[in-house]
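Hello,

Our lab assistant flagged a job as stuck in the queue for most of the afternoon. It eventually completed. Since we weren't sure the result was trustworthy after the delay, we are filing this so someone can double-check. Below is the sequence as submitted and the structure that was eventually returned. Let us know if re-running is recommended.
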Amino acid sequence: MVDILTPEQRSVRMGRVRQTGTDIEMRLRRALWAAGLRYRVKAANALPGRPDVVFFKAKVAIFVDGCFWHGCPLHGTRPVSNAIFWAEKIKRNQQRDQQVDAKLSAAGWRVVRLWEHEVKKDLAGCVSRIRIVIQTAER
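-- returned structure --
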């Protein structure tokens, strides 16, 4: 399928994609709060990769990765127009994710990465998984 937008229109549209406070991130944050898990968001800017949610006491960093932007093997799609650019972009995102995970792990942090589709389909399971990681880290 050919893109119906001009390159300039596509650039403006892609530039408006939110990086923080997305609907899926907010769903997870509300569920964590409702489960009694207290986290930080803005203070996460000091950490590599700027995690979406941080539990400082337990040293747990949570990332919610978008299926498109991070190349989900189940739901990641590849645009037809400008395919080489997007393939390289997603590959760079994946490499950066690995580097961020390594930096955080080296600093003693535990990293939890959730796919956006996991949060959508099994929010309770994601909260449970995070709770387990936090409890393990606090021991």
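-- support follow-up --
The delay was a queue issue, not a problem with the job. The result is valid. The chain has a mean pLDDT of 89. The radius of gyration is 16 Å.
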